[in-house]
Amino acid sequence: MSNLPGIGNIYKAQQSYFESGATRPYAFRKAQLQLLKKAIKKHEQEILDALYRDLRKHAVEAYGSEVGFMYEEINHALAHLKTWMEPEEVTSPLMYYPSNSRVYKEPLGLTLIIAPWNYPFQLLMGPLVGAICGGNCAVLKPSELAPFTAVVTEKLIKDTFDPKYITVLQGDGGVVIPEAMQYRFDHVFFTGSIPVGKKIMEMAVPHLTPVTLELGGKSPCLVDEKVNLKVAAKRIVWGKYWNAGQTCVAPDYVLVHKNVKAALVDELKAAITEFYGSDPAQSEDYGRIINTKRYETLCKYLASGKVVFGGATDEAQRYIGPTILEEVAWTDPVMQEEIFGPILPVIAYDDLPHAVQLIRQHPYPLALYVFTKSKRTEKILLEQVRFGGGCINNTLVHLANPELPFGGAGYSGMGNYHGIYGFETFTHRKGVMKTGTWLDVPVKYPPFKNKLKLLKMMAK
Q: What are the Aldehyde dehydrogenase domain coordinates in residue numbering (predicted)?
């Protein structure tokens, strides 16, 4: 069925292991989460080193957004898994008395988790936590574009888990993923670009395999005229240039009220200099672009509008400095797709209806950020803009709360995860009604005769 070495054997082994029931007990799932946490701790320095080599992530940034993030996710799951797994009692219709009804949270089976290169460790391990919590087996496909992290991840998984339970597939995603998806997985979890997400969905259709797609989009950041501009600027700069802008929920562009646009741009410039110095290329805290192809794509965006800050490039280092653009037209290339890099267009708006109209030109962003003191502004944007998730007076931090669902809407994806939402993504809610035999109400049986009146009374 497939030319990919071992995929057939892996699939059969995982099928057999899952059907044995080994993954179902709470004690097993808890133990696997503990093993995963222990393994991350054991390989922690290797992971941090790999992230530096792939993306030049500073250890603080890599720990906060990848390794430490996973400790928080696992700890949260360990604290709540038993409760999540418990069947839920629901009411039963009177006409089926004596009955009781429960919702059981059943494992799905075999899962395929496909990760991107921008957060190559966390975006593979995060969904894996959900798969483990749900009682599933998992095949993991790390991104080949972050090769050092992919190698460490495979080593970690191989040292910790039996491949019939959890294993890693390496190689070119354009080859490996289509061949793997010739087999019917019970769920496919993909994080990446919209075009590839569409292909994943197409490959899932023949098997009617459900998919979770965590995609992207142009996430707007709105700043109204009555905010603390210094604080807003620092939080925007932090969120935009974290990982050199290679974050799916980074502020893609800023919409700022025309009365404070100049002042905000000044504060953005000041914040960049404060964080990364007068020459960010020399800063140990500023990352690099993943590869030459992405670097070249981003460099083309610099021709859009007017560079009012930054714009420095170095192909040998794959370096693009923190950049601010003004005088950007909505028809410019930089506004046609997600930037996914350290280039920030700043655009003025006249009033709130105008801002909402502008945002709707790029519908269904993965994130929305609003800096305002106005409850009315907050309410209008939350109600009138469809988006995956976001923050009021901050950026990115909604990801760090395991109590919140993370996922897209429309073009930015489908399904969500983190915490209980990851558990629910990787489980099937099975409804079961159990009826006692000590009483058998005959109203439902033929002959019906004059039972309609009684049936209507019971239905009330």
A: 12-431
